[in-house]
Amino acid sequence: MSTSQVDSTDFAGIVTWKDDAVTQTIIEAGDLQHLFDALDRRGYQLLGPRLRDGAIIYDEIDSVSDLPVGWTDEQDGGTYRVKRRDDTAFFGYTVGPQSWKKYLHPPVVRLWHATRGEEGVTVHDDTPSPTKRAFIGVRACELSAIAIQDRVFMGEAYVDSQYAARRAGTFIVAVNCGKAGATCFCASMGTGPKAGKGFDISLTEVLHADRHYFVVEAGSQEGTDVLDEVPSSHASPEEVGRAEHVVADTAMQMGRTLQTEGLKALLYANAESPQWQKIAERCLTCGNCTMVCPTCFCTTVEDVSDLAGQEAERVRKWDSCFTMDFSYIHGGSVRVSPKSRYRQWMTHKLASWQDQFGTLGCVGCGRCITWCPVGIDITEEAAKMREG
Fold first, then answer.
1. Which of 12, 258, 301, 312 to pair with 241, CA 20 to 30 A apart?
2. Quick count: other Cβ atoms within 10 Å of Cβ 9?
């Protein structure tokens, strides 16, 4: 079984990763299509980055020509735009508005539906069958986010069968970052910019002089089998060194930092800090930060029936702790103010998540900063709490 996959017959298992040393090989840029073809022959649906509507998003792809070749992105608080690079890098961007969560934990899911017939009501379970899908271009921070959601949805006694079914058929091609954005802080979180585990294949893109190639590692047996079908050569020490330099240089480019030592205790001790009200004066409670976050998992459930009373269904949809109704119980909402809702989100992400799941709920991708309309910066707010 691939290291990035879950046995579809045992949804209760926690994903384990292979950390064994692997041989590094070289795939020339002109041969990358062979990797796509090898995955296609094995029945995988290819999903990866492509340029659409002024953003680099994740969608179905068929060939390397669908990738955002020669494009990059510029990000800052409340700012995102794409622009041309001066080279032909396939993965020369950071992360866009979407995460792989949309495939593993989709925005809208029908959990079950029921029909009324002559013999009574029949309930149909809508848990999907595992589908073979290959994620192309998964960044290190996103691998960590997937591992976090694995823990949330499959790590305890209660397993989400919807998530587990989608996770079981997933093949992951990771890409080590060659560029850090102004809102990135994965180095502070220990989640990047190099993928250490959780992938079937990892690529480091190198553009050196007139040459364009990838240093490749296999992280699972299936990854090794796929690479056997792709033209490659053994990586020399010089080629490996250039790839390591790419990643090291990216780690030095981080646009943000977050000091994590003592962070949980800091937030718990500052539940009544006046800084929360200062944030609330800017926060629109729009929920953008939770929608783009690769680890947020809040949902709501709706029951719908037809007018004739012959069919009914239960649908699960993404929700946000920034909405008034999310904390509604009999008599009203628990968190009625923007102050209380932002405090809930940030404290959960950086403190109480550790009590629940044993890890931080943030991977340092910076999406919540980029896609906040007013540019609220979680790293800046944490630093102000520490100063105060």
1. 258
2. 8
